[in-house]
Write a sequence for this structure.
C-alpha cells in the first residue's frame, strides 16, 4: 500500500514528529466532497438521505492537526485488512443529526454504488470541529472515513507533517526524498499551514487595512478642521488677547485659555 510505505518512511525521519494523509486538510482550496447516507435511529419524514462533508484520512491525522477527540478513538493503523467499516464524526455532525447526543456506536449506511454495495459503517470516534471551507461560516457536519477503505482512490491527497523542530522549511528535502523513494512519478507541492490560514484571512486583513486607512484619514481631516476652527477663534479674539497681555497676563495663561477651548471642542466631539 502506497500510503503505508510512505508514512513509514516519513515517520522514520528525525525531524518529523507526526505524519498523516488525507483527502483534504483544514482551509484547503479543494474543499471536501459531500456524502449521502442514512443514520441508524434517525428517520426523515420525507424519506430523503442526510448529507455531510466527507474526508478520508489515515490514522494519526487528528493528532497531526491537533483535533481533539471528544469520545472514542482513532482508526487502527494501515494494513489491517480485517478492520470493519468505520467512521469518525465531528461535533457539528452530532448537533445536526443526533441533537447533540453522543453518536458513538451508531451506524451510517451509504447508498449502493459500484465497488461499494451498501457499506454500513460504525461510528467509532467523535472529534471536535475543524473548519474546512471557511473561517467565516459555521463548521458543517463532517464524517471521516479510513483512507484505505475508500473504494475510489482520490486524484490528489494532502500529506500533513508536523515538524519536531518547529521549522517546516527544514522538512522539504527529506519529504521530497521520501516521496520520490516510494513513487518517483508523484507531483508534490509544499505549503505551511500558516500560509493557508493567512490566505483564508485575506478578506479580513484587507478590510482591516482599509478601515485603518480611512480611520487615519478621518483623524487627519478632524485635526485640520480643529486647527481651522481654533485659528479662526484666535483671530477673532486677537484684540482681547492683546489687551490681556497688556494688562499683565502671562503668555502661559493665554496659551492655556486657547488650549482649554480646544480641549472643550475635542471633548464635545468625542462624547
Amino acid at each position: 500500500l502506497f500510503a503505508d510505505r510512505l508514512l513509514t518512511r516519513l515517520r522514520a525521519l528525525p525531524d518529523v514528529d507526526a505524519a498523516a494523509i488525507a483527502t483534504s486538510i483544514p482551509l484547503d482550496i479543494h474543499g471536501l466532497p459531500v456524502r449521502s447516507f442514512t443514520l441508524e435511529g434517525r428517520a426523515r419524514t420525507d424519506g430523503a438521505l442526510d448529507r455531510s462533508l466527507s474526508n478520508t484520512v489515515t490514522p494519526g491525522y487528528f493528532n497531526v492537526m491537533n483535533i481533539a477527540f471528544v469520545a472514542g478513538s482513532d482508526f487502527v493503523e494501515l494494513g489491517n485488512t480485517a478492520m470493519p467499516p468505520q467512521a469518525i464524526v465531528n461535533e457539528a455532525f452530532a448537533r445536526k443529526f443526533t441533537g447533540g447526543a453522543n453518536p458513538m456506536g451508531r451506524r451510517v449506511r451509504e447508498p449502493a454504488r459500484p465497488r461499494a454495495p451498501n457499506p454500513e459503517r460504525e461510528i467509532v470516534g467523535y472529534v471536535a470541529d475543524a473548519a474546512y471551507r471557511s473561517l467565516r461560516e459555521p463548521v458543517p457536519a463532517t464524517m471521516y472515513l479510513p483512507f484505505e477503505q475508500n473504494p475510489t482512490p482520490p486524484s490528489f491527497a494532502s500529506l500533513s507533517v508536523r515538524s519536531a523542530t518547529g521549522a517546516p522549511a527544514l522538512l522539504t528535502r527529506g519529504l521530497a526524498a521520501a516521496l520520490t523513494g516510494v513513487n518517483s512519478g508523484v507531483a508534490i507541492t509544499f505549503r505551511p499551514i500558516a500560509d493557508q490560514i493567512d490566505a483564508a484571512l485575506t478578506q479580513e486583513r484587507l478590510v482591516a487595512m482599509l478601515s485603518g486607512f480611512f480611520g487615519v484619514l478621518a483623524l487627519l481631516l478632524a485635526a485640520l478642521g480643529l486647527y481651522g476652527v481654533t485659528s479662526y477663534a484666535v483671530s477673532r479674539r486677537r484684540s482681547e488677547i492683546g489687551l490681556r497681555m497688556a494688562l499683565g497676563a502671562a503668555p502661559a495663561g493665554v496659551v492655556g485659555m486657547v488650549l482649554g477651548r480646544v480641549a472643550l471642542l475635542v471633548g464635545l466631539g468625542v462624547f
In short: The chain has a mean pLDDT of 81. The two ends are 69 Å apart (CA to CA). DSSP finds eight helices and nine strands in the chain.
